[in-house]
Amino acid sequence: MDKLLISGGGPLSGEIRISGAKNSALPILAATLLADGPVMVSNIPHLHDITTMFELLGCLGVTVTMNEKMQVDVDATTLNNHIAPYDLVKTMRASILVLGPMLAKYGVAKVSFPGGCAIGSRPVDLHLEGLKLMGASVEIDGGYINASVDGRLRGAHITMGIVSVGATENLMMAAALAEGQTIIENAAREPEVVDLAQCINTLGGRVSGAGTSTIVIDGVLSLHRGSYRVMPDRIETATYLAAAVATRGKIKLKDANPKTLGAVLKKLQEAGATITTGIDWIQLDMEKKRPKAVSFATAPYPGFPTDMQAQLTAVNAVAEGSAVIVETVFENRLVQINELNRMGAVISVDKNTASVTGVERLKAAPVMASDLRASASLVIAGLVADGDTVVDRIYHIDRGYECIEEKFQQLGAKIRRIPG
Ligand code: UD1
């Protein structure tokens, strides 16, 4: 198993390019199942989760062709199988996103039931309830979700009990080909939901209201071929910004979208960063100052993203003062804190609340990544620690950060991969 070796050092400095968004590319690739012709998707990040989605599409019979610019041509007209198998779904929960489009287009889908994961139980009840309201019959048998519908799905009025990004996306894709109008209330407002809606509309769909809590989808008979460029990854962007804050650095990120990062930029400014932005770039300068501790609570968009909680906790670990962090989205997402404490951080956890007292410096230690964003927080900690930190189990990082060591090297960090 590969590891990352990080020698803690000075401030990050320099410029890098931000990749396409994993959490946007995954649903968009699933949405290509809805189209009657090939869909060219560009700005796809080179990541393990994306490869898993290609494998999943491939095993459904879909033809996936990639060129050297990471543009992917997906032709779902060759689909010849409706089963998303356990082996793939267990490695990536987002595999559930093929359920809605496959059911809407072919009237039948069999998708392995995703299990729990390191950050909580993460059920899919909202996905299934919504599809049932649209006329699908859904049964769980032998660890699989068997969904079918006679004819087309029907438009429905769906009110989500809690805000779910995945359920909003799955139901929006299903509704794109349903008969009549679907209204999703209490929908997720994440930028990735908006990106997916724009992609569906590019292919001839009729989705409005994405980005607000009420999405209205007028079902169409078919979607056509087209091309779509995936938005920049806001979590990757924010992770590098947080690393620059922790190391008291100055960096510029290109091909980023500051508009999707309001809550994060506000917190980083509160931590002492000077931030300047353009349409597609963000520059952050700590003027070599130690960051100030910042309290926050995670919440669905436009709130502070749960996917940035671990990284900002690592910043707080070396900040001046103390902070309280409340994780409201997932039940078990403060797991990285034990590892940070092994590096000398002073953080106590009570249920979903972490109390951090910043220390001047961390000390290098061997640490273990437990999930994608937790691993990013350990890299940030390693960058500011005295000595050489080894982060184990970095396959989690490769699920969500493209060329992480190259990008950090470009910013002057001493980081390298040790093949395992
Ligand atoms: C997506 C993101 C993930 C991010 C999360 C929250 C992708 C591929 N992943 O995950 O990076 O951390 O949004 O911003 O886009 N829930 C239910 N029932 C359901 C569905 C969800 O109870 O049927 C709960 C979950 O357990 C969780 C909360 O709703 O507590 C939010 O989860 P959700 O927004 O669905 O997360 P994902 O779409 O899985």
List key phrases describing it.
420 residues; alpha/beta; four-stranded mixed beta sheet; binds uridine-diphosphate-N-acetylglucosamine
Radius of gyration: 21 Å
How large is the share of residues in beta strands?
25-35%
Please count the beta strands (DSSP E, at least 2 residues each). 26
End-to-end Cα distance, whole Å, is: 4 Å
Describe the structure in brief:
It is built from 14 helices and 26 strands. It has helices spanning 22-31, 48-59, 86-89, 99-106, 125-133, 165-176, 191-202, 234-246, 262-270, 309-317, 337-342, 372-384, 395-398, 404-410, and strands at residues 3-7, 13-17, 39-42, 63-66, 72-75, 83-84, 108-112, 137-141, 144-148, 157-159, 181-185, 207-208, 214-218, 226-229, 250-254, 274-278, 281-285, 296-297, 322-326, 346-350, 353-357, 362-363, 366-368, 385-386, 388-392, 414-418. A hairpin with a 2-residue loop joins strand 20 (346-350) and strand 21 (353-357).
Detailed description of the structure:
Helix 1 (22-31) packs parallel to helix 7 (191-202), helix 6 (165-176) packs parallel to helix 7 (191-202) and helix 8 packs parallel to helix 10 (309-317). The strands form seven sheets. A four-stranded mixed sheet has the order 23-25-1-26. 30% of the residues lie in helices and 25% in strands. The longest helix is centred in the middle third of the chain and has 13 residues, at 234-246. Strand 8 and strand 9 (144-148) form a beta hairpin. With 420 residues, the chain is α/β, with parallel strands linked by helices. Bound molecules: uridine-diphosphate-N-acetylglucosamine.
